[in-house]
Known about the structure:
Blueprint: E1 4-12, E2 17-21, E3 29-35, E4 44-49, H1 53-56, E5 63-70, E6 73-81, E7 84-90, E8 94-100
Amino acid sequence: MLKPTFKTQIRSEVRREWETFDPGAQNPVVSFMVNQDMDIPADGFEAVFGVGDETTETLEGDWVSIQLGYEDDLKEVLNGTLRRRRAEDLRGESKGVKPCL
């Protein structure tokens, strides 16, 4: 049986390096949703991250790449620059980061 998986990368314009988020115990990704338009190239995504050094340094203008697939067969489904970033209270526990493309 195939196991769905993902890989999200954000390239910080400040530090000029990639942060990679994939499934694992230390993964700050709470959830993400990819929206793809069939008519015009107006794709986007919304991701919810837990608080961490990697996520709090995410800024508007950072480059984002999202890959989805099964096991070792990932395909890039979206890439572009981060258009909006907002921090908000998640479940009353801690601040989370929601980057939107």
